[in-house]
Amino acid sequence: MPAIEIEELSKDFLTGFWRPRPYRALDRLTLSVDEGEVFGFLGPNGAGKSTTLKLLMQLLYPTSGSARILGRPVGDLAVKQRIGFLPENPYFYDHLTAEELLTYFARLFGLRGAEVAARVGRVLDDVGLGAERRLRLRQYSKGMIQRVGLAQALLNEPDVVFLDEPMSGLDPLGRRHVRQLMLRLRDRGATVFFSSHILSDAESLCSRVGILAQGRLVASGRLSEILAFELRGWDVVVAHLSDELRARLAAHARTITALSHGRYTIELPPEASPEAFLRELADGGAQVVSLNPLRETLEDYFVQSVGAATARETGL
Amino acid sequence: MRTIALVAGAVFKESVRDRVPYSMVAFAVLLIAASYLISQLTAGQDLKIIKDLGLAAISWFGLLIAIFIGIGLVSKEVERRSVFALLSKPLTRGQFILGKYAGLVFTLVVNLSAMTVAFAVVLAYMDAVALPEVRAGWPAPALDPRLLTGVLLTVAELMIVTALALFFSTFSSPLLSALLTFGLWVAGHFNQDLRNFEAVLDVPVMVWLARGLYYLLPNLAPFNVRAEVAHGVDVPTGDVLLTLAYAAVYIAVLLVASIAVFRRRDFK
Amino acid sequence: MTALENPAPPTAARPSVARLLAVLPLLLAAAVGLQVVRDRDRRPFEPPAGMLWFRSGEAVSRMALGYEAILADIYWMRAVVYYGGQRLMTTAPPNYDLLYSLLDLVTTLDPRFNIAYRFGAIFLAEAYPSGPGRPDQAIALLERGIERTGRWEYMHDIGFVYYWWLRDYPKAAEWFQRASEVSGSPAWLQPLAATTLAAGGDRRTSRQIWERMLTDSDTAWLKSNAEFRLMQLDAMDVLDRLNALAQRYADREGRVAQSWQTLGPALGLRGVPVDPTGVPFVINPTTGRISLGSESRLLPLPDEPPPPPALPARPVP
């Protein structure tokens, strides 16, 4: 059974005060996520990612279409018992402490007695909140609030977790932490559905992605299928390149760009043999700093898809 | 039921730590304490003015607290989106509204109790320092239990105001909710005049409108027995019970309406 | 270079505000000084009569939004201060125009404000210049009080106004009688009605009224007012006796006594007799009449009407 099923889900908002007109924020979204998958829901700002998540949490009601989580319609109380949700830019209460907030939520999940304190403590440890957990939430930085948000999403050891921009507001250390958390969730067998506009995160975490642009799903599928991982070329960074050698290499290099301090970056076409090139460099007295294959990234794919979608919209 | 109690507990914890209601309570207490000094200006009416001022302060500051916490804790929550995480937990929107209301009322009662205690202290002091011949001239004792009836009806009135504030904040911004709630409170005190309009107006449509408004708008004048209890006049128990029953029903109407609105709305 | 142009060289520490703080008291002193100078030369504008924005008790009641009782208290305080202020006024003749409006406001906002009605009864009716001299306003106020509360005290007070200020004894007796018919009213009202009818204006009757006011009142100023009136009556009693004695002396000696040096020893008095407030009585050298000393607080004494023509005896119920 798919963990999440979305069918022809659409949402119109009425905009304008005097003559309200419908603005289609989400247009017939259809997708499904299997149990145990990590699904990356990607797209530029304003694409409708948050709208989709809110529809799944029944914070919004759809104009048409339907969605099911774990086989039950969204909003079902039994399902809410088994899912977790981290909203975008979360805000909680000013005057409660993180501990108090999580205790409150834990009790709402039906936990009782000593189990409450144990679970709350563990979850706070997992997200890396130490003694700060006893401070009032109004004193927290954005990063700390984000951690609290994650904590409350994971409090009930959910089977399906919905995360809206989980990395937002975190420093690189925090990001790594969250990434590890998400991988642990996957290892546990939970389904993770997260939205982001940071593609590098998706690349390292997801098994499947969906790309949303202007309310429409413009692409979706396994990452391995989308990115052919074809070689596009090579990128070599060299130092101590003599002018004479440079002129000679210009023949079979695609581009040669100067960096600082006498370093150059040379781009080779895919058919070139890197081994032969390196030998040529060594003979010429140059020093190889780095050698990297150039493959299509998610970013390229993203820009392509979104660009195409925008082109369709605006008729360019 | 348990869920509602949990929400109420969290609401109470959050609002009781907010500093603004504390300032209101502090102001009220100061005013009540100051009433002792003011009483010197009244040519022998000192007990009366202390009772009047105490009851008025409890009522007025209670009103400000009711409006403030009523709108602050739903409008603000919706505006700042703390409601998103909460509504993804296993509770219905109806339980959320009822739990909110219970928590707000409890906060209100705690604040009003603090003010009432200060009031009782000042009255006890008056009683202790008064000369026997002055005390003989009082129409009612200083610590008159009838005063509690006045406070009780004020609490009931403010519970209606809190329900109003809650209702408005299910669909409008904090500022608008505050203005609407205050406006209806004012209207609630003018309500008696709508009855007299009927005698003055000729046009039947206007009469129907006036009568309709009279029954629709909350009628808050019966909750004001401050003048009676300050003079030591008994308020019939039957009247009090009838007024409290009206309050209960009107509050139920507002809560049902709040749940209905809240259940259907989108949170953008 | 001034302090403004040459601030201390920049450091990492928090900037000092010592110089600013030093300037503050100087500026405040300047403000206060200017105010003193301004006040010396100009009087704040005081309208000829006092200002009362709201004359209608009904209007204020409507706007009170449930706070009528406390507003009544505030207007009461204003009434007391207003009356006292006018009473003590030395620069201009007192103006009591607002007193009625204020008391009307108080009693409309709080119909049970007992003391306001009684204050009106005593002080509204009091003759000019020590009072407003408006017994009609006092009666109007009390009549509204009766309408709202039916208390016997207000009926008694109307009777009192008729008796003392309007000298209308039949009307006074009528009101005392009405008061006596209210259940719970004291027993002395009935005989008071009868006495008033029979011997209104008689000093004994008046004394009774004031003695009742003295014993029955719970309010300090009502009591002291009654005391004051009784002292006046006492003074009048003493004066009558003294004048009678002085007349006997004059008849005997064939001339009036011109001073206490003459009359005193003749009457067997040690020293100059004084009134209940301790001010010596004076003898008019020309007429020989004894009266209150001019500084006596008891002036002006209430005038007494001529005794009524003999009425046919009324059966006492």
Record keyword descriptors for this entry.
heterotrimer, A: Alpha-Beta Plaits, 2 domains, 4-stranded antiparallel sheet, 11 helices, 35% helix, globular, B: 268 residues, 12 helices, 0% strand
Question: How would you sum up this structure in a few lines?
Answer:
The complex is a heterotrimer of chains A (316), B (268) and C (317). Chain A has 316 residues and is of the alpha/beta class.
Description:
The complex is a heterotrimer of chains A (316), B (268) and C (317). Chain A has helices at 49-56, 77-80, 98-108, 114-127, 142-154, 172-188, 199-205, 223-226, 243-249, 274-283, 298-314; strands spanning 4-15, 21-33, 38-42, 64-69, 72-73, 83-86, 160-164, 191-196, 208-213, 216-222, 231-239, 255-258, 263-268, 287-295. By secondary structure, chain A is an alpha/beta fold. Chain B has one domain. In chain B, helix 2 (19-38) packs antiparallel against helix 3. The radius of gyration of chain B is 21 Å and the shape is globular. Chain C has a two-stranded antiparallel sheet with strand order 1-2. The longest helix of chain C has 34 residues, at 220-253. By secondary structure, chain C is mostly helical. In chain C, strand 1 (282-283) and strand 2 form a beta hairpin.
